[in-house]
Every structure is written in structure tokens, then in C-alpha cells.
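As promised in the previous annual report, we have extended the structural survey to additional targets. Below is the entry for Secretion protein HylD.
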Amino acid sequence: MNYDSRIEPGQMTAGEPETYEAGHNPLTGDTEQDRRSRRWIWLVAIVVAMLVVGIWFVVHDGDKGVSEAGKDAAQVPVVTVVVPGRSTVAGEISATGSLAARRTMPVGSVGEGGEVREIRVEAGDWVKQGQVLAVIDRSVQSQAAASQSAQIQVAAADARIAQSNLDRGLKLVDRGFISKADIDQLTATRDAAVARVGVARATLGQLRAQNARLDIVAPAAGLVLERNVELGQVVGGGTGVLFSLAKGGEMELLANLSEADLSSLSVGVEAKVTPVGSGRTFTGQVWQLSPVIDTTTRQGTARIALPYDAALRPGGFASAVIESGAVVAPMLPESAIQSDAKGSFVYVVDDTGKVHRRPVKTGLVTANGITVPSGLTGTEKVVLRAGGFLNDGDKVKTRLVSATAK
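The corresponding C-alpha cell record, generated without further manual editing, is:
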């Protein structure tokens, strides 16, 4: 059977519960309240997503900043510094020069000269004062002295005869046999005879002195440095130096010094002298400072007295270290001191970790370092090494070492 069964809105069949409410979507089954809830969920999700993205950017930028800061920190160099303080340093001046005899005695012929018959010393011998160094032929001079000695005897005989005549005349004058004038004549004759004896003796003494001067003798005790005469050589007053002696064997070093070094010394200071090739060091004293400066070299001479030693050979080369008083100043190793066209300088690190160039004046150079008398107080942090790789104003990290460990 065909019929239409229609249900009007609001009508329910018998036994069916009411299924739809107002705002109910029969196709999706969602109510208006469900749709509102979903919209709120989406809004919350979008806000949360935006917060997550923002936090990610903040964290990423922060990590990048930390990384760059770490990178900058890693690029800051670490340098070794020291606070030098002030040290008391014994002043020393280094010099070089030639060895020589302190008092050289040139010996030559002082008499009339003649042929050399005998040489009694050689270079390197020690001699006493008055010792004969060489003998000159005196055969002719000896004969002249002998002749004069005979003349003395003749004059003495004449004087004796004159005295006897005078004595007899004095006996006869009382008896009136001779006059007073005769006595005066006899007296004058006697006096002349006695005077001739004196003249003869003086002449003999002169001849003997001249003969003695024919021998070449040492004027003082010392060391024979040179012998410039040979057997058979004819010598005289114009021959020149026959022997060269060092008085007492004393030696000296003629040390060449600059004007500034010379002015800082005084007579009596100690010096250590090392001859080239000997490997030994001798202690001497400065006994004379040159009163003039060479206009060409701008140097003067300090004469250092030395006792005799076979290793000290006149004419040899030697170096000396001379004491020049104590200096109180900061001391740095050579690696800490830089130099350029403007002069010497060091790098000093301030409290903020920046380096600054500091001009300095260097002083004494010792085995422990170089003194800095000007430019530093001794309380600064001075870069010890790698100064050549730094620039004024660079940022550095410091590693402090003690002054004794530098």
C-alpha cells in the first residue's frame, strides 16, 4: 500500500525520544557551543606557537652572543709580565785596550861609545839596579886612565920636593941666610905642586867615570823587554835604545773609554783584566785617567796597573771590566726592551689589561739583565716577551712571574 508518512517539525513518533536541539547541525552533529570551543582552542594554539617561536629566536640570539663573546675572549693574547722593582747593581764598564809596561825604561849608550864586546842579558831576564847589560871595548880608555894615574904620582913627588924645600927655607930664615921673599916663593911652589896632585887625581877620576859609562847598565831593577844590540856593533850616544826594561816588572792596560765612561771613574777603582788567549783574569787598579780626550775618536785612556805575570805581554790585546759604583734602578731582561727609530721602549700593562708603550733609557748591561735608570719606577707590569707582536692599546691577559724567575 502506497502512502506518505510525513513527520512535521516538532512532532515525534510514539516511543521516540527527542533528538535535535536548537542550533543543532543535523549534518555534522555539532552544536554552536562545540564550534565556539574549537575556535578558542585554535586561538590558544596559535598564541602558544608564537610564544615558542619567539623564545626560540631569543635563545638562538643569546647563544650567538655568548659564542661571539667567547670567540673574542679566546682571541685576547696572554702575555708574561713582571714587576721589576728596584735593584742595587754594581756599576761596571767594559773596555778594551793594549797591554804595556807601566814604566818603560829605554837604555842606551851614555858614554863616548865603542865596540860591543859582551852582552850579558836577554829579553825576559830580570835585572838589578846597576847590573851590567853589555860591555863596550875600553882598551884605549884604560890606557888613558893608567897614564893619568902615573901623572898623579909625578905630581905627588913634585909636591913632596916642594914641601921639603919650604921646610929647609924656614930653618934658614931665622939665621938670616935667606930672605922673607924666598920663603914666600918656596911656599907658592909647594902649594902649586899640591894643587897639581889634586888636578891629576880629579882627571883620573873623570877618566874612570867615563870608562864606567862605557858599560850599559840597568838604571833600576826590572824586566828586560827588548834587546836591540849585537856583539861587535859600534854604539855611541846617537845609536838609540839598546835595551828596553819594565821597571819592577809592572804592567798596565791602556783601556780606551768614551767621555761619559771616563767621567764616571776615579783613580783607585778595581778592574778585572783578561788578556786575549790566556783565559785568565787579573785584578788591577786604575792608577791614572787621561786628562785629555782624543778629538778624532772622542775617547780617553784609563791606565790600569797590573802586577807582573808571564801571561801579560806588552803589546797584547786585553779586555777589562771596571767598577764604576753602585746603581739603584729597575732591571729587565733584554727580551723586554724594544728599540726603534724613536729609541728604546717597553710595553706596560695597565689595570684594565691594555698595553701602553713607555720610552725608557737603558743603563748598565750585566749578566742578570739591563738596568733602566729612566722611564720606570719599578712598580709597573712590564711585558717580558712578545713585545714585538703588540701595539699600543692592545687588550691582553697577563701572567705574572716573579722578578727572580724572569
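The radius of gyration is 59 Å. The helical segments are 32-75, 139-173, 180-214, 259-263. These points will be discussed at the next consortium meeting with the crystallography subgroup.
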